[in-house]
From TrEMBL, chain A:
Compartment(s) of residence: Cell inner membrane
Keyword Nucleotidyltransferase part of the UniProt annotation: no
Cited PANTHER family: MALTODEXTRIN IMPORT ATP-BINDING PROTEIN MSMX (PTHR43875), SN-GLYCEROL-3-PHOSPHATE IMPORT ATP-BINDING PROTEIN UGPC (PTHR43875:SF12)
Membrane topology note: Peripheral membrane protein
Protein name per its UniProtKB record: Carbohydrate ABC transporter ATP-binding protein (CUT1 family)
UniProtKB/TrEMBL annotation, chain B:
Family membership noted in the UniProt record: Belongs to the binding-protein-dependent transport system permease family.
Protein name as catalogued: sn-glycerol-3-phosphate transport system permease protein UgpE
UniProt keyword annotations, A-Z: Cell inner membrane, Cell membrane, Membrane, Transmembrane, Transmembrane helix, Transport
Function statement: Part of the ABC transporter complex UgpBAEC involved in sn-glycerol-3-phosphate (G3P) import. Probably responsible for the translocation of the substrate across the membrane.
Membrane topology: Multi-pass membrane protein
Amino acid sequence: MATVALKTVRKVYAGGMEAVKGIDLTVPDGALCVLVGPSGCGKSTLLRMIAGLEEISSGTIEIDGRVVNALEPAERDIAMVFQNYALYPHMSVYDNMAYGLRNRGTPKPEIERKVREAARMLELGSLLDRRPRQLSGGQRQRVAMGRAIVRDPKVFLFDEPLSNLDAKLRGQMRVEIRKLQRDLGVTSIYVTHDQLEAMTLADVLVVMNSGRIEQVGAPLDVYEEPATTFVASFIGAPPMNLLTPDHLSAVGAVLEGLLPADAVTVGIRPEDLGTVEAKSAEAGSAGLITFDVTIDVLEPVGAESYLYARVQDASVVVRLPGRAAVPETGKLKVAAPVDKLHFFDTHGKRVDPVPVAARRLG
Amino acid sequence: MPERTEAGTTSRSRRSPWVSHAVLIAGILIVVFPIYYTFVASTLSLQQILRPPLQLLPGSHFLDNYYEALFGGLGRVGGINVWTLLLNTSIVALSVAVGKIVISILSAYAIVFFRFPFRMTFFWVIFITLMLPVEVRILPTYKVMVDLGLIDTYTGLTLPLMASATATLLFRQFFMTIPGELLEAARVDGAGPWRFFFDFVLPLSKTNIAALFVILFIYGWTQYLWPLLVTNSNDMNTIIIALRKMISYADADTQWHLVMVTTIFAILPPVAVVVLMQRWFVKGLVETEK
């Protein structure tokens, strides 16, 4: 059980490339913290620095109040699950899990007990004598988890552990990881580029972009109040529509009194857009903005339909519930509740909406 | 499928077991005959060997000849029997094979898994030695051995043959295929450089080691030029050198029956190594670890 605290952690590579540009982050005890971002955003580098596989250029990393900058990975009391599992190909499943404990000089009966316990938890009991190459992808993934669990570490580190599994297995393992992490209550840091994985797993969601943290928060808070346009477009699928006030005005939206002073971008989630009838019921007293879109394509996916459309030269996605009764071409009047609009300034930072009281005056 | 039989490919593939077997058998006969004849000659008396025509069936002197070779002395090489020659050659071949493997696996390990100044320089230095033929190096090496007083010693026989760029290169190529994540997982599991070497690198490269051992053992066993230069006394001879010394220019002086026995003894150990290690190969190939 431990908190992990990063203080102005930076990573500069020999060539002068700055991969991690000053990260401050505290992961509370027992929480599952997900680092999410596009490839090359420094999330894996950051994880590897916490693991001790990469040197820290400056700043400090504390695990359970102890600065671990100068410690070897094995001395940091962490366990890591790698993207390609990194199972030891020449060792049986049992030895794969026991190896770290043997190196620590754990007595044999205790190793046996811990490995059996982990194998039971992960339903690997009948596979202990197999070699990794005789296992399926999902089983290998479990062995990699087992190897982490038996060490009883203060922190679990996951480096995109599900990216090599097929979609169905990924969903299944995601649930299992979440359950296991809750049961064990071990502080965990999980790196992924998949925003769905990030949303569903995280207690604390950290969105990273080009070596910096864009936003930290509970997943739904991040979803509902993205701090930047980057977060707004990265979290949520399909991503948030980002339009300029000019675009909106040109197609008939009335924004007077709604637009905060610095706002240069208006964000609308695809599900907050809809037909005027549907949205006017939803909006209640808050009011609506309405505007016309030019329909490109309608994609029915079963439970909902995605309408891909254009507002002048900007593209817009509308998420319609069920089988949408909209034309497949031509124009459509769409609406969004006023209180579901997001505003961003020239730097892409979130701007608070105009308070309701001020709106009436305007 | 009669019409298929008419087709060229099918009929060719039907006939091919016979054709290919015939070719193989012919090839084997050509390769095996000299060895077979060596064996036949090792069971004949000197007179029988020298008198034409060639006898193609084993004679009656098998026990006499082998007894004389093993426990008597071979006249030409100063009363040294085959045991001493076999022992010398085994020591040389084993030391060369083991020494080469140990040195090259360690240097490849250093070059691949450690970051130190001039790492690539060292690699290229090792690589460049490949380009120098043995004959170019042999005189300076001989001078060094003389100055160090290593003539007629096992050290002198084996040490200069041990450094091996080829084996280093082979191990380097293999080590580069070991995924970086494996090394990192081992580090997280508390394996230092030595542990990683013994628990991961060695077990993973055992098939490579077996293959190299066979090649290098035979290389050491059949060394000719260097042992010829660096040994003077007869009891330090390897079996190959002894064979050379046993053959005189005058046919009648040469004890051909004993030469043949010695040749048979010179062939057997490499054959045994190949046969024994081959089982390892197959095992290694079936149980591919990666």
